[in-house]
UniProtKB/TrEMBL annotation:
Known role: Catalyzes the phosphorylation of D-fructose 6-phosphate to fructose 1,6-bisphosphate by ATP, the first committing step of glycolysis.
Subunit structure: Homodimer or homotetramer.
Residues annotated as binding Mg(2+): D108
Pfam families linked: PFK
Record's protein name: ATP-dependent 6-phosphofructokinase
InterPro entries associated with the record: ATP_PFK, ATP_PFK_prok-type, Phosphofructokinase_CS, Phosphofructokinase_dom, Phosphofructokinase_III, PKF_sf
């Protein structure tokens, strides 16, 4: 019998989601002749039993395929909500929509919730990892990360010239509440002098010393500091700074660091803060994200065809392979390895990346 599969995007959006949808619909309809239902707004749409029939011809605009390079998600998404309080409604929706399988594109939080639902409802679930944070375990790639890294590097390229022209320290705050992959990758690729991430706490004295050294020893009058929104102070500094007017969460981490640099240099160093925010989630997907999205979408459909459920498509050693969702959930979020080659390379280049784990 002709299969009917559902697809949804869940959690924060990122570039490349539409590319995954494109690959899933294309492979499922053209290769297998299945019906594909898009479920809008993740679990909210599921709960409300909403579904949109998707097929390759539905979005053919004079031969142009907009999904290849369109950011965001045509299905809409949510990254909050009380999904587990409505379990029964959602389990009933899966039955009512008569789905043979559900392909979900999400980060570790969404995968945890959907895996729980799938267990309770005996759903045929296949997952695809997406997140600009790149913190989903058991995969070297997640859709959206590469584009976000490129967006930050582009910002760093621009900021470097204005920083150099004015002898300023530019503090660039990037996303990453609990994992610093984004800051670390973009900071190294974009030529940062300091990269602060949640996994390696920093001290204000070392940070200031590093910037002073750049000026005094190397005559580098400007500096670029990339700071993840979840970067942490060393414990001894936390107590001292608790009373600071601008300690997070009173202000963002970037502003706090700018104030500290101004303070420790007796206001001799001029600082500016750029918070990149949701610019990092927008934009046209990079070539690598398009490739990853295409291979992930195709592989997810093949897993459904093979009846291999409860699996996420992961990228390991140059190949897309199935990994059990329950292992992914148990091992996520994936943190930066403080002993890993990226941190070590950054240190060898003279970048201050914090010290303690
Ligand atoms: O999880 C991805 C992420 O981009 C985080 O790095 C960031 O803190 C968060 O989403 C912000 O999400 P939103 O503003 O959509 O709630």
């Amino acid at each position: 019998m002709r299969k009917r599969i559902g697809i949804l995007t869940s959690g924060g959006d990122c570039p490349g989601l539409n590319c995954v949808i494109r690959a899933v619909v294309s492979h499922a309809t053209l290769t297998y002749d299945w019906e594909v239902l898009g479920i809008p707004y993740a679990t909210q749409g599921l709960r409300e039993r909403q579904a949109i029939a998707l097929n390759m011809h539905g979005w053919d605009l004079r031969g142009i395929d907009p999904l290849l390079n369109m950011g965001g998600t045509i299905l809409g998404t949510i990254n909050k909500g009380d999904t587990l309080a409505h379990i029964d409604e959602m389990l009933a929706s899966y039955e009512a929509l008569a789905l043979d399988a559900l392909i979900v594109i999400g980060g570790d939080g969404s995968l945890g919730i959907l895996h729980e639902l799938a267990n309770r409802g005996n759903w045929n679930l296949v997952a695809i990892p997406k997140t600009i944070d790149n913190d989903v375990a058991l995969t070297e790639r997640a859709v959206g990360f590469d584009t976000a890294v490129n967006t930050i590097v582009d910002a760093l390229n621009r900021l470097t010239f204005t920083a150099a022209s004015h002898d300023r320290v530019m503090i660039v705050e990037v996303m990453g509440r609990s994992a610093g992959h984004l800051a670390l990758h973009a900071g190294i690729a974009g030529g940062a002098d300091v990269i602060l991430i949640p996994e390696l706490s920093y001290t204000i004295s070392r940070l200031c010393q590093h910037i002073a050294e750049l000026r005094d020893r190397w005559q580098r009058k400007f500096a670029i500091v990339v700071v993840a929104e979840g970067a942490k102070l060393c414990l001894e500094d936390v107590q001292e700074n608790i009373a600071s007017a601008c300690a997070p969460p009173k202000c963002g981490r970037g502003q706090y660091i700018a104030d500290q640099i101004a303070q420790c240099s007796q206001n001799l160093i001029d600082t500016r803060v750029s918070v990149l925010g949701h610019i990092q989630r927008g934009g046209i997907p990079s070539a690598l994200d398009r490739l990853t999205a295409t291979v992930f979408g195709k592989t997810a459909v093949d897993l459904v065809a093979q009846g291999k459920f409860g699996q996420m498509v992961g990228w390991q050693n140059g190949e897309a392979i199935p990994v059990p969702i329950q292992d992914v959930v148990a091992q996520s979020p994936l943190h930066v390895n403080p002993q890993g080659s990226l941190v070590q390379s950054a240190r060898c280049l003279g970048i201050y990346v914090g010290e303690k784990t």
